[in-house]
Write a structure and sequence with these properties.
The chain is mostly helical. It contains 4 helices and no strands. The chain is elongated, with a radius of gyration of 20 Å.
Length: about 110
């Protein structure tokens, strides 16, 4: 029996699943400028995959590299999701809450404090 495909498939599943929260948290804290890190990491992993002698490790490096490349698109998509209100804007967005919203929050805080 050859377990290579199962092993690579399992780790692909884990890698893709791991990148989902990385994209969300990364865009929250760093904004879309995170795409540069994904590009550089993807290039490094692609070159590493080319020179790796182990078939399974080379495959996993390649999968991770192309997951990084796909993440570039997803970071920009995440920005769109934030604008739609599906996710909260992070400190990297430079978005200040409207004055009325701040006052409402302060009033709620004061009411619950008393």
């Amino acid at each position: 029996m050859n377990w290579t495909g199962i092993v690579v498939g399992f780790f692909c599943f884990l890698i893709i699943g791991l990148f989902h929260p990385i994209i969300i948290k990364g865009e929250y804290y760093f904004g879309v400028k995170l795409w540069i890190a994904f590009l550089l990491l993807g290039i490094i992993l692609t070159v590493s995959s080319l020179f790796c002698g182990n078939f399974i490790l080379s495959s996993l490096l390649g999968v991770t590299a192309f997951t990084c490349f796909w993440s570039i698109l997803e970071v920009f998509e995440q920005r769109t999701r934030v604008k739609k209100g599906w996710f909260p804007p992070g400190p990297s967005h430079g978005v200040e809450k409207p004055r009325e919203e701040k006052q409402n929050e302060e009033e709620k805080f004061i009411k619950t404090d008393q």
